[in-house]
Amino acid sequence: MNDSKNEEVMIPDWMFSQEAYTPSKDKEAFLSKSTKSVLSVLAKLRFREGKDGRFSAIPSLKLFYTILFIILTACSRNYLFTLIMCAAVTVRLAFFSAASIRQILSGTAGAVLLSVFILLPSVFMGNPQTLMNITSRVYVSVTLIGILSAGTTWNKLTGSMRTFRIPSLFIFTLDITLKYISVLGEMCADILTSVSLRSVGKNPQKAKALSGVLGISFLKSREMAEEMYAAMCCRGFTGEYRIRKKYKLRLPDFFYTLLMLGCVGLFFYLNRNM
Predict the structure, then answer these.
(1) For the CA atoms of the chain, what is the radius of gyration?
(2) What is the pLDDT of residues 54-82, one digit of tens each?
(3) Rounded to an integer, what distance in angstroms lies between the CA atom of residue 155 and that of residue 70?
(4) DSSP characters for 149-204?
(5) How many other CB atoms are there within 10 angstroms of residue 67's CB atom?
(6) Taking a C-beta distance cutoff of 8 angstroms, is the pair 152, 178 a contact?
(7) Residue 20 in 3-state DSSP?
(8) What is the pTM of this model?
(9) Which residue, 34, 64, 81, 196, is the most exposed by fewest CB within 10 angstroms?
């Protein structure tokens, strides 16, 4: 027994040799751009969480006057009314934080540039007022939607739709879709990060990696859908979207109501002779 313990173990020579493995370089534009895109979507969704202001109106009233202002701006035949709405929207936008303004204007800039690109031939055809008229309306409409989105949480916004008798199935589908975009986005970001960490050397089959990420995301989403359906059945969900929290009218609600009446009166005053 002692001889077997004292026996020397010889290490083979190949274990002493040094190996310098240099993996071939590969472009990781697919993984980096995909991860950046997913994270940008998640950042926009997180931006809309918990942004209700102290002097904000109730969600149903904010949804109503946003739609009303958009309709009045689109139907106005007097360009002065459109300019007044542009100024009013810009003033309202100034009350948000710098990050919120940057987020809202990023969406507005894309819509305005697209409208300018489409209507640019009208300038060379002798109708530059068409470009100014349409782009200003687009600015007002998209900015109003951005202000509503930045100033109201999604669950309160979807819950306020019941005030306008919107079908519960539509509200439920919209609410679940918005929530699961964030969940699936985080899962896709984790998958892309794991693929990036495990990638060594050059991967000539990037399409296969993409199909793997999409396949795992699809299977995971199907699994979560089945789990959510089972949870809804266990809790006795019948498809009725109920609002448990009752909102009371406050001073800002009366202010925005007077603002709506003033805007409607201004609309009819400026368009009475048009």
Answers:
(1) 29
(2) 667 788 888 889 999 999 999 988 889 99
(3) 22
(4) HHSS-HHHHHHHGGGGT--HHHHHHHHHHHHHHHHHHHHHHHHHHHHHHH--S--S
(5) 14
(6) no
(7) coil
(8) 0.69
(9) 196
